[in-house]
Predict the structure.
Amino acid sequence: TYILSILYVYGDESAHAGTAVAPAWSAEISPLQDYAAVIESPEFPGYTPDPKNVVWNYPAGTLKNDVQIVVSYNPAEVSYTVLHRWQNINDDQYSDYEIVTKSGKTESLVPDNLGKKDNGDPRYDGLEPLPYANDTIAADGTTLVEVRHDRIYYLMSFALNGGYGTYPI
């Protein structure tokens, strides 16, 4: 008899390259009998298997040794959430303004330019995005990035043409 086996591992694009994603599949086959099967690669959130399924097709007498196939799982496009919070006018606290869904590859870092001012949105004129954590995008879509936007303050002075009594505001 011969052994047909499939290993399910993280691919080269993954930070976990070469480690197992799922238990291996195997079957013991008699070379004297026909064997045909299609084995679908297990689903693993945030990763794409290559190949998606393995096709075995061995007519009787053609299998001459053990066969092992490796299915690689590489990061897939997944969603993550960006919460934009604006600084309040009357205090230094922040209030939720907008929630945006973005996408990126599993295990990659969220980009540096998530602040709306960086993207030219005029509703954000007068606001400055603060630095935020460049977290890794989770495979399950649970990544939440909070971007706080501070108000830009201006100091206005008055030239009173010789007058007095008005302080800058």
